[in-house]
Amino acid sequence: MHINATLVTSIGEQLISKRFLLIRYFSVIIPKKSPEDDEQRQEIEPPIHQDIFKSGQKFGSFRVGDSTFYSLIENFAKAGDLVSLERVFNQMKHEKRVFIEGNFILAFKAYGKARKSEKVLDLFEKMWSEYQCTPSVRSFNSVMNVVIQQGLFDKALDLYTSVIIQQKHISPNVLTYNLVIKVLCKLGLVDRAIESFREMPFRKCTPDVFTYSTLMDGLCKEDRIDEAVCLLDEMQVEGCFPNAVTFNALINGLCKKGDLGRASKVVENMFLKGCIPNEVTYNTLIHGLCVKGKLEKAVSLLDRMVSNKCVPNDVTYSTLINGLVKQGRAVNGASILISVEKRGHKANEYVYSTLINGFFREGKPDLALKIWKYMIIKGLKPNTVVYSTLVDGLCREMKPDKAKDLITEMEKMGCKPNAFVYCSLMKGYFDTGDTDKALDVWKDNDCVRNEVCYSVVIHGLCSNGRLKEGMNVWEDMLSKGYKPDAIAYSSITQGLCSNGLVEEGLKLFNQMMACEGSGCKADVVTYNILLNGLCKNGCVSRAIDLLNRMIDDGCDPDLVTCNIFLKTLKEQVSWLEDGSEFLEGLVIRLHKQKRVVGACNIIEVMLQKYVIPKEHTWEIVIQQVCRPNKIRGAIDRCWNNLYVE
């Protein structure tokens, strides 16, 4: 069949001419992104002129102007103009235009950026029913990705179950499996993730490096390290070569478990496979070494990191400095900070906050203030975290008035103090005995009405002998619906017992224990307060009953507990014999409940008191400590130390 060449040329020229005019027109009228919201922009000027969408000549499935609609969808989607995007879709549906899948994928991404997951799911549902466009796996993956990025893992799993498993309208590909395995791992359903992984070959999908990496990360987070290691071996047998992400998942899992020996072997394997460690690898290892207290190794690893041309970042330095501060080596942390600054790397506010806190805790307030001034000189603007650290440190140094001045400066800098700042200030005034000033802070700031602040005020009042006011605050706390924590209970109980009101203290204790689901459980401090009160009042048998209840509730006695009873027994007939029998009884009782640590602590108390345990007491504790699995654990730790060293 021959077609007239002149006719074809004429039609082509018409199409090119019309399309050029349309594109030119839209390049002028498409509005730029403005700060106003979509509704305001809609009221100002409709972005699409109706006259330009006159029906054009039809060629097969398409008509003149379709490409213009597609261009509009692309432009509005990129600009985030969702109102105009919906207008184009409605206009196309009204004119019965042909929709292509790419239109919807662009719309999904635009709605995803605007965090409108419901719109994405709704549009996906309407693709076939309203727009007569059959979705493929590309559309499904795009929707899944948007929903996952917004953290809606349950919805993502429901979508996968409905479309892929139940309806079976779409055949999944590797990306689909990667997404669903990620969802299952995020939800802690690792066994189901493994099932999906094993299902892939039957669907003619070959797992890629992302599949393996995601599943290994999920296994490591569930502390199933050995399975993750096996998966790494399987991956390489199948011809899929691991990348840095794969190794990092395994290294992170091993470091969190404290198995630095195996982590170092994985790094060696990484080099053998030609995979160069990145900053995540080094940061993970440095963090693991800092947690284990191996700071020298962490510093040398930092040097190795730099020599391998891997640039340390804020996480690297923050981790290292934080590790040094935790070991009471803030001075060394400050030296690293200075070397960081000399290399042209600017540390963030949190690094300075860590150092300031460390110096205060080490009793070096002058150095803490020097770091503060150094931070200001470097041009860093202090945030709430830094101010909070400084206020807390000054209050620990018994300088609450200076801390209050700093809060005033903080407000002038436009940094709003939070409840933690005011709690530190109140505690500082209570510790210096200036109760009235602490109460002024309490009364003048509404943000301090939470459980922690109430506990600080109650503790401060009771510690300063103002029990009645403490009880009033306690009642106010309960009336407002706040739940007391263990500190609040201990403080009130201490106040009552100090004033000879032991029975009231016991009633309060029973109320605390009766509050199921409150998350508040009596600790050894609370028990010791009551035990001391009962023993002072001569109620030794009731104190022993309470001690039994303490052990049954899973709370181990400590040195204070032992001293309370030993002092009481000493005042009776034969304190050495009675004291020895009492402590022996505690050891045996704890051993029967398989609480080895508690039993060993009592043995230590006995040795401190020059009370020699009997042979059978030594025997049962040593047998428990030296059980095969514990010995194996000790040997593994030794080997681990050897590897790391």
UniProtKB/TrEMBL annotation:
PPR repeats lie at residues 173-207, 208-242, 243-277, 278-312, 313-347, 348-382, 383-417, 450-484, 485-515, 523-557. It comes from the Eukaryota. Keywords: Repeat. Pfam families: PPR, PPR_1, PPR_2. GO terms for molecular function: mRNA binding. InterPro entries: PPR_rpt, TPR-like_helical_dom_sf. PANTHER family: PENTATRICOPEPTIDE REPEAT-CONTAINING PROTEIN 4, MITOCHONDRIAL-RELATED, RESPIRATORY COMPLEX I CHAPERONE (CIA84), PUTATIVE (AFU_ORTHOLOGUE AFUA_2G06020)-RELATED. Belongs to the PPR family. P subfamily. This is Pentatricopeptide repeat-containing protein. It comes from Deinandra increscens subsp. villosa.
